[in-house]
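Comment on both lines for my students:
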Amino acid sequence: MRTAVSLPRLHVAVLMGGWANERPVSLMSGNGVADALESRGHRVTRIDMDRDVAARLADAAPDIVFNALHGVPGEDGTVQGMLDLMGIPYTHSGLQTSVIAIDKELTKHALVPHGIPMPGGRIVRSADLFEADPLARPYVLKPVNEGSSVGVAIVTAESNYGHPIRRDAEGPWQRFDSLLAEPYIRGRELTAAVLGDRPLMVTELVPKSGFYDFDAKYTDGMTEHVCPAEIPPEITQLCLEYALMAHRRLGCRGTSRSDFRWDDEQGAEGLFLLETNTQPGMTPLSLVPEQAKHCGIDYADLVEIVIEEALVHFGKLERTG
């Protein structure tokens, strides 16, 4: 795998922030990317996204946009469509891929028919949860179009949400009109990144308490990253194969990260892909930079590789290796 690229000096607009739930993470990602690009001699314009973003991009006139946004509207196709209309090259996945991958139900329709195992489940109205459980407990409730484990609840027989869930119980049903209900898969949390068109490695995520939610992901010390994961070779290989298949089937570009649950009592039959992230985090705690580092790719090289992939896609650069 390439560990460095030779880019011309570029003017890169790093798009970050915005108003999604993941704004703080996006700001960390964006500023890390911008610092890395400046260390390599590129000219950087940092843009904290607001409603005037198109005018600000037009004024900046960058060679390329590094999309460091997470969540809506930076990861759902909205920003991608705007940049397509403006004719500005940008990193990561395009409009169609972004629309599908951020929607967990659409992702199932795109991947399961091609042999990638994902949990079953269905979309439920939040109001209906107060009448009856949609699935046998334990089950998971999550927003259909959010990332970073935002708004995820695990409903067990012992949980204090009530039977059925009480209207006054704190949970995602208070913030979202509809939710995806899935069977709870016991076991271990695994993740595998793809860079370019090659899978990197598998990391196991071990929260110090609870489960791997938003706080566990982005609070230093709350989750142990076992990298590479200490799992059987056949499970490692399956994770890498499924991550690459998902990357290709969804049409991802640059880099993606696929998250898994593995019931280690069931062997290969217990491995399920949960979602594929088209714009994984680039913070100091993020998994793609960590896996890249283990593969000999430092942070600045990782950023430049993602930019090179975008420039090649948009016909602005010939691949160097």
Q: What stands out?
A: DSSP finds nine helices and twelve strands in the chain. The first helix runs from residue 23 to 39. Residues 137 and 156 are 5 Å apart (CA to CA).
